[in-house]
Amino acid sequence: MKIDPIHQFNIEPLFTIGHIGNHTIAFTNSTLYMFVAVAVISVLMLASGRQLVPGRLQSVAEISYEFVASTIRSTAGSEGMKFFPLIFSLFMFICVSNLVGIIPYTFTVSSHLIVTAALALLVFFTVLIYGLYKNGLKFFKIFVPSGVPIYILPLVMFIEILSFFLRPVSHSVRLFANMLAGHIALKVFAGFVGMLGVSLGAIGWLGGVMPLALTVALTALELLVAFLQAYVFAILTCIYLNDAIHPGH
Amino acid sequence: MAESHGEVSGQKAGAHTEADGGHGGGFPPFDSSTFASQLVSLAIAFVVLYIVVSRFALPRVGGVIEARQNMIEGDLAEAQKLKDESAAALKAYESDLAAARSRAQAISNETREKLNAASEAERKALEDKLTTKLHDAEKTIAATRTAAMSNVRGIAADAATAIVQRLTGVAPDGAAVNSAVDASLKG
């Protein structure tokens, strides 16, 4: 029995929808899980009760609302609440698709760089366009930190500009790499259980307890990572938007 | 990553942990032939999510939270109002009580003074009456004594006349007897 930890990331077209230029647009397993995430979020937010004393589902909906709202207020101020729907959508989409991806035999949408890169670029261009629209040319003050001596200003500006344009890279790769590595590690350790059992018989099944325990522990860790990476993505979005709202450090 | 994956897929033979779909070479996240499908699906899914979230989900949940917040604040304000009212009622009660107490004090003082004055007047009237009676008694006593004394003088003069007549056989001069009795009564 061989382990193929990469197989889980395969995109399987379920049916073809159409073509754009040379590209085939297919309804894939990735598409399916994107809509699963959207459906889960919609059910959570729309089917939860409206009682004065919330039940469990309503509590989850309200906690997510207030969690994202307080994250925005603390990092981007009350003006950042303009972007509440965007940040809430990003956070919930990433969080739910990460969590759904931990269920065995499912597909993890955020384990594909193209998806995380698209989301990071969405944030990048939102920051850029809103920053220029709201502040005009003053927006470029974010590249010129105040209080820096004039003789090292060019160097600092160079670094600031470089880091600004590298933001979408780090923003997307962080999420992608975390989800990818976590799922590969899970798959490898889970695969050991079966491999030991098949190749060594009874002793192997006994020995398989160790990797099984490790798999359970890793699953718990992945639950944490799934939430944490969604939170990191959301809070970085807030911090970047704060630059657009209040340029000049 | 791609190299290690090459090894793994090289080893792939026979039994497989999952359905043997295989992945036509390359690392799936870097397979550019799937990018267009994923981008289109992501765009549709994310736009749908954004509309659901911004139009329905957030106003709904936010409204519930706000309604609860308003209700809690309203209840707290109501409780504060009731507390203020009860404090005011307590204060009014205490001031009423103090007023009633001072009025009772005043009434009792007045009554006591009235009673004192009445008893004083009664006592004074009684004393006056007694004093008058005492004076009358003293006058009576003095009159009686004067009468008695004049009787005593008459008796003494008669006795002296009689004694002198018996001893000497001659009736003494009345004037001489009277002066002798007076001198003796003074002595």
Short description:
The complex is a heterodimer of chains A (249) and B (187). With 249 residues, chain A is mainly α. Chain A is built from 6 helices and 2 strands.
Please, could you describe this protein's structure?
The complex is a heterodimer of chains A (249) and B (187). With 249 residues, chain A is mainly alpha-helical. Chain A is built from six helices and two strands; from the N terminus they run E-E-H-H-H-H-H-H. A two-stranded antiparallel sheet of chain A has the order 1-2. Chain A is globular, with a radius of gyration of 22 Å. Chain B is an all-alpha fold. Helices cover 84% and strands 0% of the residues of chain B. Chain B has three helices and no strands. Chain B has helices at residues 2-11, 35-168, 174-186. In chain B, helix 2 packs antiparallel against helix 3 (174-186). The chains are: A mainly alpha (249), B mainly alpha (187). Chains A and B meet through strand 2, helix 1, helix 2, helix 3 and helix 4 of A and helix 1 and helix 2 of B.
